[in-house]
Design brief:
With about 140 residues, the chain is α+β, with helices and mostly antiparallel strands. It has one domain: Alpha-Beta Complex (Nucleoside Triphosphate Pyrophosphohydrolase). About 15% of the residues lie in helices and about 45% in strands. It has helices at about 50-60, 130-140, and strands spanning about 10-20, 20-25, 35, 40, 65-80, 85-100, 110-115. Strands 1, 2, 3, 4, 5, 6 and 7 form a seven-stranded mixed β-sheet that branches. A hairpin with an 8-residue loop joins β2 and β3 (about 35). The chain starts with 8 loop residues before the first strand and ends in a 5-residue tail after the last helix. About 30% of the residues are buried.
């Protein structure tokens, strides 16, 4: 008998757009070590999605932002070579409005920086859906 599939893990992504730039971090740890993506991490017990996004953003970059709303959610399935589900993440993208701070890599980030929306294709390897989410967030007329 095969073991039961793992329970989904809820995590947040802090999507911050400022002056036609998006804040990205280069991940230090798997999954996606070395890839560029949004600051984020696992939701803690008792924490709201918006609180988690603001906390993870600050922990990874030192940037302070006000979380505004959920943009979307993405399912990420990690599978073994034989196709067995190893981990299932539900990544909730939260649109945040920058308030203060300059990005400095901290916590589990190798690097952190503002990247022009037009430069997303040239920064290097991007985590799944980064370009799509950045463009979706930039369509919000208030940021």
């Amino acid at each position: 008998m095969q073991p039961a599939p793992p329970q989904p893990i809820c995590a947040v992504l802090a999507v911050v757009i400022r002056d036609r730039q998006v804040l990205l971090v280069q991940r230090a740890n798997p999954p996606d070590a070395g890839f560029w993506g949004f600051p984020g991490g696992k939701l803690e017990a008792g924490e709201t999605l918006l609180e988690a996004a603001a906390r993870e953003l600050n922990e990874e970059t030192g940037v302070i932002a006000v979380p505004r709303r959920v943009l979307t959610a993405i399912d990420v399935h990690e599978r073994s070579i034989d196709g067995q589900l190893m981990r299932h993440f539900v990544l909730v993208a939260v649109l945040c409005r920058w308030q203060a701070g300059h990005p400095l890599a901290a916590d589990d980030a190798l690097d952190a920086r503002w990247v022009g929306l037009q430069d997303l294709d040239s920064i290097g390897a991007l985590s799944r859906d980064v370009a799509r989410l950045a463009r979706l967030a930039s369509q919000d007329g208030k940021d």
